[in-house]
Amino acid sequence: MLSQAERRLTFVVLGLVAIATLYPLALLVNTALSPLHGTSGVTFRHPLSLEAFGYAWREGNFSRYMLNTAIVTVTVVIVSAVLSIMAAYAVAVLKPPGARLVLYVSIFGFMLPTEALIVPWYYQLLPLNLVNTYWAMILPQIAQSVAFGTFWLQIAFRALPATLSESAVLDGASRWTSLWRVMTPNVAPAIRTMVALVFLWTWNSFMLPLVMVSNQSLYVVTVGLSNFQGSHFNNYSALAAGSILVALPVVVVYFFSQRSFISGLLAGSVVE
Amino acid sequence: MDDVVLTERARGVDRERAQPRRSRFRPGAARRADILWGYLLLLPAVAFLAVLLVEPFIKALQYSLESWDGIGPARYVGFANYKQLWTDPVERDSLVHLAILFCFYSLIPTAAGLAAAAAIRRGNRRGMSFFRVAFFLPQVIVTVVAAIVWTWILAPSGPATLNGLLHVLGLGPAVGRPWLGNFNTALVAVGLIAVWLDFGLCFVLFLAGIQRIGPDLYDAARMDGAGIFREFTSLTVPLLRREIGAALTISVVAALQSFTLIYQATDGGPGYATMVPGLLVYRYGFQLGEVGAASALGIAMAVIIFGLTFAIRALIERKAT
After folding, report:
1. Among A74, A254, B72, B120, which is least packed, fewest CB within 10 Å?
2. Of A115, A258, A270, the CB nearest to B259
3. For residues A85 and B45, what is the distance between their CA atoms, to the nearest angstrom?
4. What is the pLDDT along chain A (272 residues), one digit of tens a residue?
5. By the 8 A CB rule, do B63 and B292 touch?
6. Does B257 contact A115 at a Cβ distance shorter than 8 Å?
C-alpha cells in the first residue's frame, strides 16, 4: 500500500528536480529583464527592463542572425521533407530493384556523426566556392535530414495498406498524383514529426556553420550568440536577451508539437 | 522476395479490376511504371546521399591514411593517424573523457529517469503533465544557450551561482570552487550539465513506457507481495527494455556530439581537462592543419557510434529472449 509519507517524499523529490531543471531557464529570463550594464554579475534583484532585448536585436546583430538561421532552417526543412517523402514512397511502395540499398545507405548516413564528415565537406565545397555561403550550411544538412527522413517515412508508408496506392493508380491517377494526393496525407503525423526534428536539429546546429562561415553577415544564431558571448561576456543582460531570442522559436515549436518531438526522438534510435 | 509477391498481387488486382476498363494495365506495364517512377522519385535523394554522405565518408577514410595540411601535397602514412589515437596523450585522454561523459550523458540520466518514472507511477498522478513538460524542456533549449547559462551558474562566485547556494547552506569554503576552471572538477561539471540535458528525455520515454504497460501487471505483482525494489527490477526494468535501449542510444550519440557544449563552456580546458574527440576534430582539421589526424578521429567516432548502437541493440534483444 502506498503510504502518505511515500507520496509526499516522491512529490518533494520530483519538485526539487523540477526546480533544478527550471532554475537555469528562470535565471536566463530574469537576467534578460535586467537593465543594460546595470549589474556587475548575474543577480536576482534588479529593476525590470526590456532594453536588453532591443540592444541584442540591433547592436548585437541578432536580427541578422535570426534571418540567416530562418533562411537555412526553412530551406533544409522544406527540401529534405519533399525529397524524403519521394524517396520513402519509392522505397516502401514502388520498390524498384536496389531500393533496399538506398534504405541501408540512408540508415548508415543518418548514424554518421557530423564530426566524421565535416573535414571532407569543407574540402568538397571549398573548390566550388561554396564555403562562406548559405549553401555550405544548407546542402550538408539536407543530406543528413534526407537520410533520416527516408528511413523514418518509409516506415510510415509501409504501414499503409497496399490497396491504397494500387487503387489510386488503377483509378487512373499517375504515381506522382497518387503520392501527393493519396499517400502523403495518410502519413501526415510522421511528416510532422520529421519536420519538428529537422527544425530542431538545423536551428541548433553549431559545428557546421562555425566551420563553413567566417563572414559575420552570414552567421546563424548559434554562431552569432557564441561570438557575442566572446565580445560581451560581462554584458549579462544583453547576453541573456540574445539567448532567449535564439532559444524561443524552438521552445514555441516544442510546445505546439510535444507529441511529435517525443515520438520522433524515440524513433530516431529504433534503427532496424 | 518482396518484389515477386508484390508483382503477383498486382497481377491479381489487374485481372479482377483493371482489365475490363483499361487494356494498358497489363501485368508488366504496371510493374514497369512502378520501377520507372521509383527511380525518378529516388533520384534527388540518392544524389544528396551519394555526394554529401557516401563520398565524403570515403574521402574521410582516405584522408585518415594521409598526412595533409589542407593546402600542400598529401603523403600516405598508413595507419599512423589511428595509432596516434592511443599514443598521443591528448587524443587518448579525449577518448577517456568521452568514456567518462558517457556516464553523465547516458547512464546517470537513464538510471535517474527510471527511478523518477517508477516513483511517479507509484505516487499520485497530480502534476504529472507538468513534470513531463518541465523535465523535457532542456532537450529543446539551444545547446549554446544552455552552455552560456551553465557557465554563469558554475562561475566561481556570485549570488546566482552554485557556489552562492553552497555559501547560503554554510558549505561555501569547504565545497565551493570554480567548478569549470578547476582541473579536477571541470569534467564532472560538464557532466552535470549533461545530466541536466538528458534526464528529461529519459524520464519522458520511460513514463510513456510505463503508461503503455498499464497498472494491471503492477497490481498483480503487488498481490504476489512484491516490494518496491522487486517491482522495479522484475517488472519496470524488463518491460521497459525497448525504451531503455532508445534512451541509451540517443544519449550515447549526444555524448559523442558534445562538441557544442564543450566548445562553448570550457573550450576543452583548463589545459586539456575537458578535451573531447569532437573538439579535437575541429582543432586538428581547421586550426592546426592536421587533416589526417582530424579524419582518423572522426572515423573513430563513427565506429564508436556504430559499435555502441549495435551493442545496445544486442543487449536489449538478448534480454528479450
Report:
1. B72
2. A115
3. 10
4. 456 777 788 888 888 889 999 999 999 998 888 887 755 667 777 777 788 888 889 888 899 999 999 999 999 999 999 999 999 999 998 889 989 999 999 999 988 999 999 999 999 999 999 999 999 999 999 999 999 999 999 988 888 887 777 777 766 677 888 888 888 888 888 898 899 889 999 999 999 999 999 999 999 999 999 999 888 877 888 899 999 999 999 999 888 887 777 766 666 555 43
5. yes
6. yes
